[in-house]
Amino acid sequence: MEESDTRNLTLNMTYGSLDIEEFINDTCSIVSYKLIVFGSVCLGISLCGLVGNGMVMWFLGFHMKQSPFTVYILNLAVADFSLILMFFLILVVFFILVTFCTSLIELAPLYTDFVFVVGFLCHVFDLSSLGLLTALSVERCVSVLFPIWYRCHRPRHLSGIVSGTLWALAGVFVSLLYFTLTKDSEEVLSDVALAFSMILSVLMLFSNLFLITKLLCGSQRRHPGRLYVAVLIEVIVFFALGIPFCLEIFLNSDEIFPDNTSLLLALLDCCLNPVIYVLVGSCRRRRFHRSVKVALRRAFEEKAGNEERSHVCWDTVVEVTSL
């Protein structure tokens, strides 16, 4: 067995050549205190992320009227919450494994099934999150470039349809990746998944760059609204923290957590989105509100408020383009 298998939280999923009992014994005997500390830090971050994304889901789902953009944000919060939950579960299992090593040998078959399911879901939630953030960025760009069409002719339930389609595509694609019959087809699908992730990332990047150029450097400069600022910061955070994990899980499709650093960055990426919403919604004339609920409402309701005050398409063009 390679030493790298026991120096981090990587859980290899190619069981044909790996004896799971030997893996558990070796992991327990070589695990270091540094790894335990690292796992504890990740566990704490996971709990914070679950609470933060849970609050966003609760607020958008039950305390605010949905707008085209908040539908994407709600689905994004669900994807982030689910991905963090998978991280949390695997970390809990890691600590149980370290604490009760020898007594868990008889549960090895259940452990392999658990690892397989968690790995599958991690890939689905990560790909869904990437697609939803891209869709949110592209629709923001379209709303500014084509304001009349967007207000008058955009399908009413487009956000929900796109979100559902992205969830379904992620599930189907990862299912093909996991249940392929040959090693060659698995490698091909892994390369396709990586290429698809890169395309979505580039599309997200260019739509935001084009939009901010249009808003701040065009003939009529406009101040971005809070929701746009929040989305822009989300995109920046994703490229800074989320890209390494997103790329590595498809480069190494047989591993859940390819690297400890990537795992930590991915956790931070998922956990920071609720913080971004609260900070953007709280900031007002260099002061911050104390209520999280008020901050979230200020961050999300700006667009919805503009739409509710609008009854004629032409009269709302200026409101939509001003974000």
What's the overall geometry?
A: globular
Per DSSP E runs of 2 or more residues, the count of β-strands stands at: 2
Structural class category? mainly alpha
Given this structure, which CATH class is correct?
A: Mainly Alpha
CATH H level: which superfamily? Rhodopsin 7-helix transmembrane proteins
Give the N-terminus to C-terminus distance in angstroms.
Answer: 56 Å
Radius of gyration: 22 Å
| Number of domain units | 1
Which oligomeric state applies? single chain
CATH architecture: Up-down Bundle
Protein model, in words:
The structure is a single chain. By secondary structure, this protein is mostly helical. The protein has one domain: Rhopdopsin 7-helix transmembrane proteins. The chain has helices at 4-7, 20-30, 33-62, 68-99, 108-145, 147-153, 158-178, 183-217, 226-251, 260-282, 292-308, 313-321, and strands at residues 283-284, 287-288. The longest helix has 38 residues, at 108-145. The model is unreliable at 1-7, 10-18, 303-312 and 314-323 (pLDDT under 50).
